Amino acid sequence: MKKQLTLAYFLKYFSVRCLQLLLLLLPLRSVFAQSRVNDIPFTIPAVHAWQGDTGSYIIPAHVKILLSSKDQQALQPYVTIFKNDLAEKYPGLPVKVEVSENPVPQKGDILFTVTTDTAQGPEAYRMVIDNSIRISGQPKGCFWATRTILQLLEQSQQHSIPRGNITDFPRWPVRGFVLDVGRKFFSMAFLREYVKFMSYYKMSDFHIHLNDAAFKQFFHNNWDSTYSAFRLESSTYPSLTAKDGHYTKAEFIALQQLADSFCVKIIPEIDVPAHSLAFTKVFPEIGSSKYGKDHLDLYNPKTYEVIDNVFKEYLQGPNPVFRGDEVHIGTDEYSKAESEQFRSFMNHYIDLVQQYGKKVRLWGSLTNNKGNTQVRTKGVTMNLWYNGYADPKEMLQLGYDVISTPDGWLYIVPAAGYYYDYLNTKNLYNKWTPAVIGDQVFDETNPQIKGGSFAVWNDHAGNGITEKDVHDRVFPAMQVLAEKMWTGKEQRLSYDTFSRHATAIGEGPGLNIRGKLNTDSLLPLSASSADKNNQLVFHHAAAGKYKGRQAVHLEASDSYVKTNTIGIGYDYTVSFYVWPEKNNKPDAVLFSSQDAVVKLKQQTSGRLGFSRENYHYSFNYTIPENKWTHLVIIGNNKGTSLYANGVLVEKMEGRVQQFPESKSKIAIVQTLFFPLQYIGGAGNSFKGYISDLKIYNKTLSEKTVTTL
């Protein structure tokens, strides 16, 4: 009995003492948590070096950006962009730039200082983050530091950045993306957005492929009807300028100026002597009778006269159209039977471009087109895309600087069935760097390897691919390749961990090219809620109780309700009820935006349909008049589906166009970036009622659709 009492007493005493000790340790635990050194924060690309501190820098109620007067000229353009970006991210936040002789940062301030340290190159920067942020580097490095800050803020719910010291610089100067605008037109607005998007990921080169031709087998094997385009305004040869979409000289100059301010270099490419159908359609006499009209005749003096004049138009004068220090001259995939003349052609245009003080980029085919003519190497950089055309080891031995652009790793050809529709980002993350060129691997420190570039080639012209579809393919690739081209093989995270964190980083301030909405939403369709929330603007439209439902009535051809959302991208579900009145005209608009139009009656078909980028599609369904119909439209990157009153009407996906003459076929893409900017439209709005418009950030199952 005594033993049992003693044990009970001991257990009671021990429990009390443990509780007392725990209470004593709790404050220490809190202190320890507060003093925990910050882990390296996630950014794309990852910073080179991090020394963690404790706590966080928090964006203050009033932000001051400090510059010294001696640095103002060099940094003012970049600081202005940063100021605007902060204002875009935090509407209403006061952001002020202060210039003084010797600025001293106070709590919350952000100080920029230009240094003369060039050890890690012009893109390096250092950043000290404590109760203020202090950035030093050359001007371009200081700008990249602002992209790091913005990415850190994007991931923070508390508008904070972990304290610590960053030292950062890229392993390669060329971190590029090639866009074929020759076979598919991309609007200038899209290109300008892409400059900002690329800059957000510290990508340095935007290579714009300005001319090309489609494949003859998709145009009845007839060169005259085969699609081709040259995308720049030409005053020398006005008929050369593409009629279905081109850039004026002023627009292209402004694009380069914008790119300069975002530390992105525009590389314009005029592709000759193959891929040149746009030129031979204007001047048939310079087309090759031996190799096809998409090839220039390399022996005809008129060829050189025309192409010289084309290049000169954009290179000469006090304010040339091509403003940067590099121009791409194409030169690829010409018959090796003409190797010597092809090599002479290359030298001619290397000399011509360099005459205007520019460096030259080219594709080159010197392994395929062997010959005795020595092609210039000084001031020439070669995109290495296929080792059978230009063997990397051989090109390096010849003395070329090179850009790793291997087709088997980095070529996107949308919906073509070859190369990649979407790049294998996991394989790229784990195995590729710019030092990997095809099946050859080089030392990452090789100074002749200037970096890498991935590409989108729109080989299948007319296949229905849109700007939004291309961006859907580019976005995941841009995230991974920005990482690989900046850091090389030094990955700290697994691919799965990288991908998980990457979902928190978007396209940059003010951009939503993918059309991602934060939450599922029901647009408020009552006039009172519109006035209260300032979300909707009614024009010749009214909200109220109509036909037994709370709805919007569009009563005239110019009726619309303007929302605060441009549209929604893949994957999505849009649900609504519609009551069309009688006698709506062809092309009557249900929903519209700058990207697409959904129509009650597509053209003269009388059926529900949609149009985007001059492609027009109709569902096999006519909406009945003078009654409510419940419609659900589901969209993903493969196609678009329609449900009417809970029943699947049609799934637009997998369509193929056949070409019997050549036994060829291409996929026809029927995707829809759903327009939400306007219910109705300013031009040809449908007349009737819309109710219960619901937007979902996912593709709902058929079972769920039937319950909406």
Automatic annotation (TrEMBL):
Glycoside hydrolase family 20 catalytic domain residues: 173-488
Domain Beta-hexosaminidase bacterial type N-terminal: 43-168
UniProt keyword annotation of Hydrolase present: yes
SUPFAM superfamilies: (Trans)glycosidases, beta-N-acetylhexosaminidase-like domain, Concanavalin A-like lectins/glucanases
Coiled-coil residue windows: none
Keywords: Glycosidase, Hydrolase
Entry annotated with the keyword Hydrolase: yes
Family according to the record: Belongs to the glycosyl hydrolase 20 family.
Protein name (record): Family 20 glycosylhydrolase
